[in-house]
Every structure is written in structure tokens, then in C-alpha cells.
Design a protein that fits this description.
It comes from Filimonas effusa. This is DUF306 domain-containing protein. Keywords: Signal. The protein has 304 residues and is of the alpha+beta class. It folds into two domains: 147 residues, Lipocalin, CATH 2.40.128; 124 residues, Sandwich (Immunoglobulin-like). The chain is elongated and about 70 Å long.
Length: 304
Amino acid sequence: MKRHYFLLLLCVLMSVATTLQAQTVKGKWYGVGNVNIDGSANNYLCELILEQKGSVVTGEFNYFFRNGYFSNKIKGTYNATKRQLKINFMPMIFYKTVDAAMGVDCMMEGTFTLKASKIETTLSGRFTSDDLHTYSCAPINVKFTKLLKEVPFQQLVETEIEKQAKDTLVRPAESPIQKLQREASIQLNMRTKEIVKELEVSEDSVRIDLYDNGEFDYDTVSVFYNGKLVQHKQLLETRKPITFKVAVDSIAANNDLVMFAENLGTIPPNSALMIITDKDHRYEINLTSTYQKNAAVRLRRKKE
């Protein structure tokens, strides 16, 4: 009798667990979006971070495309009976874009179906445009997998990029410096860039001094100049600066100096004082970087 009661209770608990799982899409999801056009190799490395209250769903949709990282706040609904998630229209960069900084957006909405098994929980479906742009903005198919443990999106992107590289070609032999530059560039492009100041300089090179801004709290930064790593994982101090020089191209319209936060120190966010000096100028700029945003200064060479 007790055995029958135990089996009945177990069945009820399993049924309740399955029902609860079908009623919520809350959590962190990761997937690869593939453009639904023959011959297109472009893809989107995607992350969904969802919250749910009743049938209302809110959260973030983050994705990495070519050389850019993008983040959108999203809203939608979840129908527990149909196990269907709908995401309202939001901007996604056009799949034929070559340079993410110069791309245009397509307004896309998403429809996904929840499937749960002992092995994994997935949201499978696609992003589609409105009727007016059906032929220009192709559908993007995505199978999201629910993450059962906390894994940084950056780490997932790096893993996927490495996997794609192995699947498509044999990577040429790299020097340690080339490998470091490549891996650092991946990290750089996964965060947004905020131009804090645009400065005019007189010489073809300038001196850069970086200090911890205020109290020493173990802030560590890397610095990129025009996409190239020039300082790697340097500790910011209040008395002794990180000092280096950069050449300012007189032909290029922009020369961007980017501070990348390697950590947030003991007093977030990661903040620094950057001093830029040439023969005619001495600029002092306060910079703040986080895991989502890189602070940047744009240099322009003064025309003779």
C-alpha cells in the first residue's frame, strides 16, 4: 500500500514539475541565429535573459554580429498552453552588413516554442520582419538552449567563434602576440563604445598617462587604439601612471583610444583619469568602463 502511495505521489510531483516548467521561460538562454537564405553564412550569436510575471515577459536580448555587440531591452508574452513565446518588434542589424558600426537595422519580432526534456530545455523559432520588409529582411532561425549554470556570454561567444573557425578552415599558425590580439579584439567588440570626449591635438604623436581616479581599488584595464591592443591588463595606480605614446593619423577622421575594464575593482565601476599631452595641449578626462560599456576618447589631428 505504501509503495503504491509513493508511486502515485512521485507521478503527481513529476506532473507538477513538468507543468511549472511549461509555464515559465524565466532564465538565461543562448543560441546561434542563422539567416534563412540559401548560401548565407552570416550568423548571430544570441543571448536571452528573461523575466516573467504571469504571461508578461521582459528582459534583454544581446547578440554579437561580425565586429559588433548589441543589446536590446525586450517585451513580449508567453502562452503556457501553447508553450509559445512571442517577442515584440525590436531592432536587429541587417544580415548583409559588413561593418557593424555602419549598419542599418531591421525591425524584427520573434516567435519561439518551448520544449523541455531530461537532456535540455530549448526555445526554437525565428525572428521575422513586418510584411513591408519581408523580402529585404530575411528571417533568422534560432534554437535557444537554457543555461543551467551561470556562464558569461563572452565565454560562450568565444567558444562558438573557435568552433566555427575549426569547422570552416584551418587557422594559420599564430604567434603569441597575434593570438592575444585576436582574443582581445573579440572581447572588445562584445561591449558598446561610448565616446566621452573628442579632442584636437597638434603633433603626430601624443603621450597618454592613466591613473586610478580617486581611491586605489585594484582596477585593472586594457587599452585599445584604433582596434589594436596597446596595453594589456594593467593595474591602475593613484601615484604611478600607465604611460605610453600613440601616433595620431592626420588622414584618418577618427583615432579612438578605448579603455576596457578587465575588472571592476573593489569599488565599481572601473574608473580612471586619462591625461593626454602634446606640445600645445594637456587634457584631463575622467573615464568609466563596465562589463557592458567601454569608455573612449577620440583624437583628431589639427590641420596645418
